[in-house]
Design a protein that fits this description.
This protein is α+β, with helices and mostly antiparallel strands. It has a domain of 113 residues: STM4215-like (2-Layer Sandwich), CATH 3.30.2000. The protein is 24% helix and 42% strand. The chain has four helices and ten strands. The strands form two sheets. Strands 1, 2, 5, 6, 7, 8 and 9 form a seven-stranded mixed β-sheet that branches. Strands 3-4-10 form a three-stranded antiparallel β-sheet, with no helix packed on it. Strand 8 and strand 9 form a beta hairpin. Helix 1 crosses helix 3. The relative contact order is 0.22. It comes from Salibacterium qingdaonense. This is Phage neck terminator protein gp12-like domain-containing protein. InterPro entries: Gp12-like.
């Protein structure tokens, strides 16, 4: 992975959708939907709450010798935290679907591994109900901390032939 979070997000969303069979949408869309355009219950939303949190230590550094340039590659393994919430009209359905969704990340998914994404920690499923116009929208959710591989490359120009003059 380079500096683009989009492939990471897309892979995580695909894995969760394939496992649960439920729509998985960004939080902004779940909150901004009008009632007639909202997905049918239950559905799952996600929010990337902390993208690319650096861990302690120094990056791994590698130098690749090219024809006219030297490429410096720094590799780090930052974490990112994603919050998932299941929406429903029924409390037990929301809880069951949230539990199933959290179990998704307990499995070793090839799709995640191919993108160098590892599950670092799965947090507890918790109640996130919200009162909307006198009625509760039932919500249960959890957070997952993922570890990803991030590479930063920089070309460094260098001289291949150096001629020195002897001082007299």
């Amino acid at each position: 992975m380079q500096n683009d979070i989009t492939p990471v997000r897309n892979t995580i969303v695909k894995v969760l959708h394939d496992f649960t069979g439920r729509p998985v949408i960004p939080l902004e869309e779940a909150v901004g939907y009008e009632e007639d355009s909202k997905p049918s219950y239950p559905f799952i939303n996600y929010k990337i709450t902390t993208p690319f949190t650096r861990e302690g230590g120094y990056p791994n550094e590698e130098f690749i010798d090219g024809t006219d340039t030297l490429t410096k590659v720094q590799t780090t393994q930052p974490t990112l935290t994603v919050s998932f919430t299941v929406y429903s009209t029924d409390s037990m359905e929301a809880y069951s679907e949230a539990l199933k969704a959290s179990e998704c990340f307990e499995w070793d998914h090839l799709d995640l591994r191919q993108q160098n994404i590892a599950v670092a920690e799965i947090f507890n499923v918790e109640n996130r109900d919200t009162l909307i116009e006198g009625d509760y929208e039932r919500r249960y959710g959890f957070d997952v901390q993922f570890r990803v591989t991030r590479q930063i490359e920089r070309n460094i120009d260098y001289a291949t032939d150096v001629t020195t003059q002897k001082e007299e």
